[in-house]
Amino acid sequence: MPLSDHARENFPYLLREVQAAGARLVAVSKTQPDDKIMALYALGQRDFGENRVSELSEKVRRLPADIRWHYLGNLQRNKVKALLPLAPHLIHSVDSERLLFEIAKVATQQSLTVALLLQFHIAEEETKSGFQLSEAQAALNQWFAAGPKPGLRICGVMGMATNTENDETIATEFKALTKIFKQLKNDFFPTDPSFCEISMGMSGDYPIALEQGSTLVRVGSLLFS
Ligand SMILES: *Cc1c(COP(=O)(O)O)cnc(C)c1O
Predict the structure, then answer these.
(1) How far apart are CA 68 and CA 86, in angstroms?
(2) Is 28 near ligand 1, meaning CB less than 6 Å away?
(3) Residues 114 and 91: beta-carbon distance below 8 Å
(4) Cβ distance 114 to 127 under 8 Å?
(5) Which end of the chain is more exposed for a tag (fewer CB within 10 A), N or C?
(6) 129, 163, 202, 224, best to mutate for ligand 1 pocket (most atoms within 8 Å of CB)
(7) What CA–CA distance (Å, rounded) separates 79 from 55?
């Protein structure tokens, strides 16, 4: 099915809203067919997000090489070897110290460069994964103690708010993520310009995320339907 007229007409407005707030729009294209992705590509969109390594692998093979693929999904350590050669632009979902070090190991073995975000648990739902602040601080202490890792860049933080109609809850959670970003920036990356991203906001809550300082919004259903 091609992209609907409605989606095509809405895209420029959404893009302008995101850009006016100083953020980038990631079009979350998981489960979407190539023709819909290409319709947004034709409108200038280059950042797309996927959450499965197998699906991403197929799409990388079929779709234009200048697409910047963002990996958003839960990432199992045994999938890292398959993911990294696909050269994702940014991995948003690094949610444990073990995963962080597995990525570093595979990147070094394969001489690949990797940019990643640390995912934080900011929502009420237990099902959503991510670091607690103290866990991330411990992981980063290990990270810096282990010495320089050429090619690996930790670029910021990512989080998902609670799925709720309560805008205040969502704003409080996004505010907490921005605070985590600032603390890590201050404690670990004060002179590293790469550590600059706060990935937050989806179809249902991206305006709140933009107000709270998001630099990357990940919008799927709103763009494609
Ligand atoms: C699916 C997904 C999105 C997009 O969700 P929509 O509600 O469709 O905008 C954003 N981030 C992550 C991590 C996702 O898995």
Answers:
(1) 11
(2) yes
(3) yes
(4) no
(5) N
(6) 202
(7) 12
Which structure tokens are listed for 121? 């648990």
Instruction: Report if pTM > 0.85.
Output: yes
pLDDT 10s digits, 27-53? 999 999 999 999 999 999 999 999 999
Name 190's Cβ contacts closer than 8 Å, sequence gap at least 6.
none
Q: What is the pLDDT of residues 143-189, one digit of tens each?
A: 999 998 888 999 999 999 999 999 999 999 999 999 999 999 999 99
Query: Which residue has the CA at smallest separation from atom 4 of ligand 1?
Result: 220
pLDDT tens profile 50-73: 999 999 999 999 999 999 999 999
Query: Which residue is associated with the tokens 């001489």?
Result: 111
Give me the residues paired with residue 199 across strands.
158, 216
